[in-house]
Amino acid sequence: MATGRPSPWRRFRRKVRDEGPLYVAQRIFDRTVPRSLFDARIWVVSSADFSTFVDAEVPDVGTRWADEADDDGPVPPDREQASIEDKLARGEIAAVIERDGRVVARDYFTAGSFMQKEWLRFAFRDREIYSSWSFVEPEYRGQGLAVQLAHFAYREFARQGYLRDFSVTDALNRSALRSSAKMRHWPIGRIAYARCCGFTVTRIGGRVHAGFWSAKNPLVIDFSVFDGP
After folding, report:
1. CA dihedral 69, 72, 77, 81 (to 10 degrees)
2. pLDDT, position 172
3. H or E element, residue 188
4. Which residue, among 14, 213, 7, has the nearest Cα to 115 in the 3D structure?
5. Where are the domains of the chain?
6. For the segment 10-41, what is each residue's pLDDT rounded down to a tens digit?
7. Distance (Å, rounded) from C-alpha 216 to C-alpha 113?
8. How many C-beta neighbours within 10 Å does residue 204 have?
9. Which top CATH class is 9-73+83-226?
10. Mean per-residue pLDDT over the chain, rounded
Protein backbone atom coordinates (compact mmCIF):
# COMPACT_ATOMS: atom_id res chain seq x y z
CA MET A 1 0.00 0.00 0.00
CA ALA A 2 1.35 3.42 -0.97
CA THR A 3 1.84 5.62 2.02
CA GLY A 4 2.01 8.93 0.14
CA ARG A 5 3.68 12.01 1.54
CA PRO A 6 3.99 12.33 5.34
CA SER A 7 1.38 14.50 6.99
CA PRO A 8 2.34 18.09 7.93
CA TRP A 9 2.41 17.05 11.58
CA ARG A 10 4.85 14.19 10.90
CA ARG A 11 7.06 16.50 8.82
CA PHE A 12 7.02 19.04 11.65
CA ARG A 13 7.97 16.40 14.23
CA ARG A 14 10.80 15.21 11.98
CA LYS A 15 12.16 18.74 11.67
CA VAL A 16 12.04 19.18 15.44
CA ARG A 17 13.86 15.86 15.90
CA ASP A 18 16.52 16.50 13.24
CA GLU A 19 17.13 20.25 13.55
CA GLY A 20 16.24 20.80 17.20
CA PRO A 21 13.27 22.53 18.86
CA LEU A 22 15.11 25.82 19.37
CA TYR A 23 16.03 26.10 15.69
CA VAL A 24 12.47 25.29 14.62
CA ALA A 25 11.16 27.92 17.04
CA GLN A 26 13.65 30.41 15.60
CA ARG A 27 12.41 29.68 12.07
CA ILE A 28 8.80 30.27 13.16
CA PHE A 29 9.84 33.55 14.78
CA ASP A 30 11.63 34.58 11.56
CA ARG A 31 8.45 34.04 9.56
CA THR A 32 6.44 36.06 12.06
CA VAL A 33 8.70 39.06 12.72
CA PRO A 34 10.25 40.91 9.74
CA ARG A 35 14.05 40.75 9.85
CA SER A 36 14.16 44.45 9.07
CA LEU A 37 12.59 44.93 12.49
CA PHE A 38 14.56 42.36 14.48
CA ASP A 39 17.11 39.68 13.66
CA ALA A 40 19.50 37.73 15.88
CA ARG A 41 21.82 34.79 15.30
CA ILE A 42 24.73 32.85 16.70
CA TRP A 43 26.89 31.23 14.03
CA VAL A 44 29.54 28.59 14.54
CA VAL A 45 32.55 29.39 12.33
CA SER A 46 34.27 26.26 11.03
CA SER A 47 37.24 25.52 8.82
CA ALA A 48 38.45 22.56 6.74
CA ASP A 49 42.14 22.05 5.93
CA PHE A 50 42.42 21.19 2.23
CA SER A 51 45.81 19.48 2.65
CA THR A 52 44.01 16.46 4.14
CA PHE A 53 42.00 16.01 0.93
CA VAL A 54 44.75 15.99 -1.73
CA ASP A 55 44.67 12.20 -2.12
CA ALA A 56 41.12 11.64 -0.88
CA GLU A 57 39.10 8.91 -2.59
CA VAL A 58 35.77 10.40 -3.60
CA PRO A 59 32.97 8.02 -4.74
CA ASP A 60 31.81 8.52 -8.32
CA VAL A 61 28.23 9.63 -7.68
CA GLY A 62 27.84 11.97 -10.65
CA THR A 63 29.78 14.80 -9.01
CA ARG A 64 31.29 17.57 -11.16
CA TRP A 65 31.77 21.31 -11.40
CA ALA A 66 28.69 23.20 -12.53
CA ASP A 67 28.41 24.72 -15.97
CA GLU A 68 26.44 27.73 -17.18
CA ALA A 69 24.03 25.37 -18.97
CA ASP A 70 22.99 23.61 -15.76
CA ASP A 71 19.92 25.81 -15.39
CA ASP A 72 18.72 24.57 -18.77
CA GLY A 73 19.63 20.89 -18.60
CA PRO A 74 22.50 18.38 -18.52
CA VAL A 75 25.91 19.49 -19.78
CA PRO A 76 27.46 17.68 -22.76
CA PRO A 77 30.60 15.81 -21.64
CA ASP A 78 32.74 17.45 -24.34
CA ARG A 79 31.81 21.01 -23.31
CA GLU A 80 34.89 23.08 -22.49
CA GLN A 81 35.05 23.82 -18.75
CA ALA A 82 36.33 27.08 -17.31
CA SER A 83 39.11 26.76 -14.72
CA ILE A 84 38.46 27.01 -11.00
CA GLU A 85 40.33 30.33 -10.91
CA ASP A 86 38.27 31.76 -13.78
CA LYS A 87 34.97 30.80 -12.16
CA LEU A 88 35.99 32.21 -8.79
CA ALA A 89 37.12 35.42 -10.48
CA ARG A 90 33.58 35.79 -11.85
CA GLY A 91 32.16 35.53 -8.33
CA GLU A 92 31.54 31.90 -7.42
CA ILE A 93 31.90 28.26 -8.40
CA ALA A 94 29.48 25.42 -7.74
CA ALA A 95 29.96 21.68 -7.43
CA VAL A 96 26.92 19.60 -8.36
CA ILE A 97 25.64 16.04 -8.33
CA GLU A 98 23.63 14.95 -11.34
CA ARG A 99 21.17 12.06 -11.44
CA ASP A 100 19.35 11.04 -14.64
CA GLY A 101 20.23 14.32 -16.33
CA ARG A 102 19.00 16.41 -13.40
CA VAL A 103 21.07 18.37 -10.86
CA VAL A 104 19.92 17.18 -7.42
CA ALA A 105 22.57 18.75 -5.15
CA ARG A 106 24.61 21.95 -5.29
CA ASP A 107 27.40 23.40 -3.18
CA TYR A 108 28.49 26.99 -3.86
CA PHE A 109 31.92 28.44 -3.07
CA THR A 110 33.42 31.90 -3.35
CA ALA A 111 36.75 33.61 -2.66
CA GLY A 112 37.93 37.09 -1.69
CA SER A 113 34.76 38.31 -0.01
CA PHE A 114 31.11 37.44 0.40
CA MET A 115 28.04 39.47 1.44
CA GLN A 116 26.60 37.22 4.14
CA LYS A 117 23.91 39.76 4.99
CA GLU A 118 22.84 43.03 3.40
CA TRP A 119 24.90 44.76 6.12
CA LEU A 120 27.67 42.16 6.66
CA ARG A 121 30.60 41.17 4.45
CA PHE A 122 33.08 38.36 5.08
CA ALA A 123 36.66 38.88 3.83
CA PHE A 124 39.19 36.13 3.15
CA ARG A 125 42.86 35.92 2.30
CA ASP A 126 44.44 34.59 -0.87
CA ARG A 127 43.92 30.84 -1.48
CA GLU A 128 41.06 30.67 1.02
CA ILE A 129 37.55 29.54 0.06
CA TYR A 130 34.14 30.16 1.60
CA SER A 131 31.21 27.73 1.40
CA SER A 132 28.43 30.22 0.77
CA TRP A 133 25.47 27.81 0.60
CA SER A 134 24.40 24.31 -0.39
CA PHE A 135 21.18 22.56 -1.28
CA VAL A 136 20.02 18.96 -1.76
CA GLU A 137 16.64 18.19 -3.30
CA PRO A 138 14.30 16.88 -0.56
CA GLU A 139 13.86 13.42 -2.09
CA TYR A 140 17.64 12.90 -2.12
CA ARG A 141 18.36 13.98 1.44
CA GLY A 142 19.72 11.49 3.97
CA GLN A 143 22.00 9.84 1.36
CA GLY A 144 25.17 11.69 2.30
CA LEU A 145 25.25 13.68 -0.95
CA ALA A 146 26.22 16.95 0.76
CA VAL A 147 29.30 15.33 2.31
CA GLN A 148 30.33 13.64 -0.96
CA LEU A 149 29.87 16.92 -2.81
CA ALA A 150 32.00 18.85 -0.31
CA HIS A 151 34.80 16.26 -0.33
CA PHE A 152 34.92 16.31 -4.13
CA ALA A 153 35.26 20.10 -4.12
CA TYR A 154 37.86 20.08 -1.30
CA ARG A 155 40.04 17.58 -3.16
CA GLU A 156 39.93 19.65 -6.34
CA PHE A 157 40.66 22.87 -4.46
CA ALA A 158 43.60 21.19 -2.69
CA ARG A 159 45.09 20.04 -6.00
CA GLN A 160 44.89 23.63 -7.27
CA GLY A 161 46.85 24.96 -4.30
CA TYR A 162 44.01 26.36 -2.19
CA LEU A 163 44.56 26.14 1.55
CA ARG A 164 41.29 25.90 3.44
CA ASP A 165 37.56 26.40 3.44
CA PHE A 166 35.39 28.37 5.87
CA SER A 167 31.71 28.02 6.65
CA VAL A 168 29.23 29.39 9.18
CA THR A 169 26.42 27.28 10.64
CA ASP A 170 23.51 28.33 12.81
CA ALA A 171 24.42 27.23 16.34
CA LEU A 172 20.85 26.02 16.94
CA ASN A 173 20.64 23.80 13.83
CA ARG A 174 21.69 20.37 15.08
CA SER A 175 21.31 18.73 11.67
CA ALA A 176 23.57 21.28 9.95
CA LEU A 177 26.17 20.99 12.72
CA ARG A 178 26.29 17.20 12.32
CA SER A 179 26.66 17.57 8.56
CA SER A 180 29.46 20.12 9.03
CA ALA A 181 31.37 17.67 11.24
CA LYS A 182 31.01 14.91 8.61
CA MET A 183 32.55 17.29 6.07
CA ARG A 184 35.58 17.54 8.43
CA HIS A 185 34.83 21.16 9.25
CA TRP A 186 36.16 21.92 12.72
CA PRO A 187 34.83 24.84 14.85
CA ILE A 188 37.25 27.74 15.23
CA GLY A 189 35.02 30.49 16.67
CA ARG A 190 31.61 32.12 16.84
CA ILE A 191 29.83 35.16 15.46
CA ALA A 192 26.84 36.50 17.39
CA TYR A 193 24.67 39.48 16.52
CA ALA A 194 21.39 41.15 17.37
CA ARG A 195 19.92 43.75 14.99
CA CYS A 196 16.93 45.96 15.74
CA CYS A 197 15.65 48.63 13.32
CA GLY A 198 19.09 48.86 11.69
CA PHE A 199 21.17 49.11 14.87
CA THR A 200 23.40 46.08 15.32
CA VAL A 201 25.50 44.69 18.14
CA THR A 202 27.94 41.89 17.30
CA ARG A 203 30.44 39.75 19.15
CA ILE A 204 33.23 38.44 16.91
CA GLY A 205 36.37 36.72 18.10
CA GLY A 206 35.74 37.91 21.64
CA ARG A 207 35.30 41.57 20.65
CA VAL A 208 32.05 43.56 20.69
CA HIS A 209 31.10 45.95 17.88
CA ALA A 210 28.04 48.17 17.53
CA GLY A 211 26.76 50.46 14.81
CA PHE A 212 24.37 51.19 11.96
CA TRP A 213 25.68 49.12 9.04
CA SER A 214 24.14 48.84 5.59
CA ALA A 215 24.83 47.55 2.08
CA LYS A 216 26.68 50.79 1.27
CA ASN A 217 28.60 50.76 4.54
CA PRO A 218 28.78 47.12 5.68
CA LEU A 219 30.55 45.66 8.66
CA VAL A 220 33.52 43.70 7.30
CA ILE A 221 34.74 40.64 9.17
CA ASP A 222 38.27 39.59 8.26
CA PHE A 223 38.39 35.86 9.00
CA SER A 224 42.00 36.17 10.14
CA VAL A 225 40.50 37.10 13.54
CA PHE A 226 39.78 33.39 13.96
CA ASP A 227 43.44 32.38 13.58
CA GLY A 228 44.86 30.59 16.61
CA PRO A 229 47.43 32.22 18.88
Report:
1. 10
2. 94
3. strand 186-196
4. 213
5. 9-73+83-226
6. 877 877 888 888 988 998 998 999 988 999 99
7. 15
8. 20
9. alpha beta
10. 86
